[in-house]
Design goal:
Strand content: 35-45%
Distance between the termini: 34 Å
Helix content: 10-25%
Order of helices and strands: EHEHEE
Number of strands: 4
C-alpha cells in the first residue's frame, strides 16, 4: 500500500469548481493512483457536479496526485486518512 496526496491543479482552481462545501484535498492509502483517485471521487463534495464537471478527482487536468510514501506489506486497508473540506 502507498500513501497519496490529492489536490486541485492550478487549472482546477482556475475553473472555479472549488468553493464552499468542497474538498480541497485528500491523503489516502491505496494500492495505486487509480484506487486513490477513485476513493477521493467517491467521497468528494460539491466540486463533483459543479459547472457540469463530474468526476473531478479522476481528471488529471483538474487534480494532481503525488505518492508520499510506501507502507509495509502487512498493511492491507485502503481508506482516507485526512481530508480538507471547505464548509460554507
Amino acid at each position: 500500500m502507498k500513501i497519496y496526496l490529492l489536490t486541485p491543479t492550478k487549472k482546477g482552481h482556475a475553473s472555479h469548481i472549488w468553493g464552499y462545501d468542497c474538498y480541497d484535498g485528500f491523503v489516502i492509502i491505496a494500492e495505486n493512483k487509480t484506487g486513490a483517485r477513485k476513493l477521493a471521487n467517491e467521497n468528494g463534495g460539491s466540486e463533483n457536479g459543479f459547472n457540469n464537471e463530474n468526476d473531478v478527482w479522476l481528471n488529471p487536468e483538474l487534480t494532481e496526485i503525488e505518492e508520499m510514501g510506501l507502507l509495509g506489506h502487512s498493511f492491507t486497508k485502503t481508506g482516507i486518512i485526512l481530508s480538507d473540506f471547505a464548509a460554507g
